[in-house]
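Private note to self, pasted from the team thread so I don't lose it. Backbone tokens:
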């Protein structure tokens, strides 16, 4: 069931668990994530970066595929189709394409401009029944061409953006996209607590979910995080399983070259990763 992310995140915030956002790249990714959410009776958010949207030939293709797949698989759990780290133009494209949720990442603008653009998009999104995520501070590292320095968010700026009526807020707290470096200082719980203090019931978003130790994830949820984004970890699971299949020579046996066979171990590995995360985030049975 395709819905905006508003209700599922408000429930998560009140129930002290988090909904996973899993980024999609293609049909296999989408199918694995939807089937796992349905099996575990968990709400789920499908994240689409601008790069992944382009790869899949455009946001219209993505929206059509996700809507049809949701229907054909008989998915009953709430599913939000969400733009990840959207530009101003990208947000409008996704609204037009039929996404149910958008993220406007205005974190690289001066705060006044971030506020002005976010405010405009909040009105447009809400008028059409979409949910909207905004960002303050920045997520370190690089994801599909979006580069961030990783500075921690200013809690007062978070309050200013939250007051615009966004449905979820990504605040930089030392989190990084991709694998964490050996010398990573960890999440800044001090910043998270200060942001939570200023923003009250606002569902907070933790980006860079790959490689954050379990205890830190649990602590972040206890301090108000209600949405956690995972991208790289599914890619690594897919890669490892596919590598094993090929290295074992299975693609050379019988019809092992059939893409439906070749991609099957990777698709199963994505399912296992998504299941593990949903269990850790506490969203199982919450649909
Ligand atoms: P990872 O790739 O580190 O899991 O981050 C995902 C993310 O934050 C998507 O916006």
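Design output:
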């Amino acid at each position: 069931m395709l819905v905006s992310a508003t209700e599922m995140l408000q429930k998560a915030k009140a129930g002290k668990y988090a909904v996973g956002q899993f980024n999609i790249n293609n049909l296999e990714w989408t199918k694995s994530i939807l089937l796992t959410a349905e099996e575990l009776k968990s709400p789920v958010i499908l994240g689409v970066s601008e790069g992944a949207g382009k790869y899949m030939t455009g946001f219209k293709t993505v929206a059509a595929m996700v809507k049809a797949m949701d229907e054909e698989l008989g998915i009953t759990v709430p599913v939000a189709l969400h733009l990840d780290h959207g530009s101003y133009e990208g947000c409008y494209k996704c609204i037009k394409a039929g996404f149910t949720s958008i993220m406007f990442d205005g974190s690289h603008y001066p705060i006044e401009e971030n506020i002005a653009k976010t405010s405009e998009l909040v009105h447009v999104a809400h008028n059409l029944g979409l949910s909207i995520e905004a960002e303050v501070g920045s997520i370190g590292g690089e994801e599909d061409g979006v580069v961030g320095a990783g500075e921690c968010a200013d809690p007062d700026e978070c309050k200013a953006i939250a007051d615009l009526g966004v449905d979820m807020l990504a605040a930089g707290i030392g989190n990084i996209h991709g694998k964490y470096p050996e010398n990573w200082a960890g999440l800044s719980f001090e910043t998270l607590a200060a942001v939570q203090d200023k923003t009250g019931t606002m569902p907070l978003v933790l980006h860079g979910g790959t490689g954050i130790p379990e205890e830190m994830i649990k602590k972040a949820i206890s301090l108000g995080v209600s949405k956690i984004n995972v991208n790289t970890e599914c890619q690594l699971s897919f890669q490892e399983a596919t590598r094993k299949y090929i290295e074992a020579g299975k693609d050379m046996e019988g019809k092992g070259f059939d893409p439906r066979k070749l991609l099957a171990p990777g698709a199963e590995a994505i399912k296992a990763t998504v299941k593990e995360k949903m269990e850790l985030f506490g969203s199982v049975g919450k649909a």
